[in-house]
Amino acid sequence: MENQQSQPGTSLVTERARPRRSRLLRRVVLASAAVAGAGALVGGVLMLLPGKPPAHRPPAPAPAPGPPRALTAVTAGVPAALSALAATIGDREARLRTHPADAMAWAVLGTAYVEQGRLTADVTNYPKAERALRSSLRVKGEKNAEALDGLAALENARRDFAAAKDWGEQALRAAPKRWTSYPPLIEAYNGLGDYEATRKTLDKLMALKPGGAGRPAVMAQAAAVYRDRGWREDASAQLSDAAAIARTPAEQAGYLERSGQLAWERGDREDALRHFEAAVRLDPEQSAALAGQGRALAALGRSGDALKAYQAALAKRPSPQYTLELGELYESLGMGQEARAQYELVRVRAARDTAAGVDDELLLGQLEADHEDPADAVERLRDEYEWQPGIEVADALGWALHRAGDDTQALKFAVIATDKAHGGGVLSALYAYHRGVIERELDLDGSARRHLQQALRINPYFSPSRAASARELLRELGEPGEDGMPPDVM
């Protein structure tokens, strides 16, 4: 069934993640930051802040009691408006010019930089965030849960889930009853493919029963885990409740965008579009909702409007992911030159990300597998899977191996991405499609038919070109023989 009911203590997988290793480039970036941090005084970091305000400006107020909204937004996944983040950054910078030993101000500044970078795809915020967060650690020491949370969120944003796990576990040891320490760690475990740890950490978070801003944030976190387990109705209910009790328009818009994504993944184009449009009305800076509109509009056959929605999303957040999606939309419309321009732009933007310590190897592997050099994609994705073996990487590696002509090896990874025994509980039309195509090449016609049908059942509109390909392959396969399903169907 597509929507199993959750059971207490249910394990996502029994297999633990394999040992991870770090990338040379990431280690160089982080080592340089660590060396600079160890030898520099806080005053050295202050030199990086904007110039001093005019003399007539009143002194910045002392920080309010409790964790500021920007800190909660980053560490707990509570969506925040860009204007609020900008105000928080300006306020904390002013505060630190006169109070350079304020560890909380450094932590808030750093985490606000992280969220600003994530929302705008301006990755130059990430080195600034790291400097501020390490300054907070130097001031307060290793029990500084706020800075540790921020560093975990930073590494999640950079897609270095191993480093995020290390920081997150330190934060949890420093403050095990602090609910905001849990969401970054859940994201890190998920990125590493450690679904048992993901489930256990969510259970601990929900047992804390946080109130106030924490309640909708925890609901949204639970929804993300439920979605990955294939419990769509549970995930949708949690997000609906979270949106209903959200405290700000930006927060509500964030939860509506995630609800729209769930609707899109189950193939409900109209419902997805309604959620995305509502999110943008509440928060016009909601670039994820604009990109979501692009997907839904394309599926509805409104190609011109879809292109405009993607262009609007990229104007606000020029991310490599949205760039790749726009390129594939152009390609599906027969606009090859425009598509190639977007694919080249993906590489340019990924190079920018890499310079700021962001790992875009998964996205680059997906680009190369489908549009350029499958052998290069295999090399990238093998390395990525060895480092952080989540199911998204497993699916991409399996597909790259197929595109490179190694379907026997490809099927092993496609199974990991789609088999619940390996953690592949998420109901993904793309993953099912990839597995079906690979099985078709291996003459496993029964399994191929089943997975291609599953892809279209999950979301008939999951891709303008791939959905059509799935239908064509099913026509070629035909119906099963009179004796029932072939023996390759498990």
- CATH superfamily (homologous) name of the largest domain: Tetratricopeptide repeat domain
CATH architecture of the largest domain: Alpha Horseshoe
Number of strands: 0
The CATH class label of the largest domain is: Mainly Alpha
CATH names the topology of the largest domain as: Serine Threonine Protein Phosphatase 5, Tetratricopeptide repeat
Strand content range: under 5%
- Percent of residues in helices comes to 55-70%
What is the ordering of alpha helices and beta strands? Answer: HHHHHHHHHHHHHHHHHHHHHHHHH
Shape: globular
What is the radius of gyration computed over CA atoms, rounded to a whole number of angstroms?
23 Å
Low-confidence stretches: 1-22, 24-41, 51-67
What does the largest sheet look like? none
SSE map:
Elements: H1 24-39, H2 42-46, H3 69-76, H4 82-98, H5 103-120, H6 125-140, H7 145-157, H8 161-174, H9 182-191, H10 195-208, H11 214-228, H12 232-244, H13 249-265, H14 269-282, H15 287-299, H16 303-316, H17 320-332, H18 336-355, H19 361-371, H20 374-387, H21 391-403, H22 407-418, H23 429-441, H24 445-458, H25 466-477
Helix pairs in contact: 1-6, 3-5, 4-5, 5-6, 5-7, 6-7, 7-8, 7-9, 8-9, 9-10, 10-11, 11-12, 12-13, 13-14, 13-15, 14-15, 15-16, 16-17, 17-18, 19-20, 19-21, 20-21, 21-22, 21-23, 22-23, 23-24, 23-25, 24-25
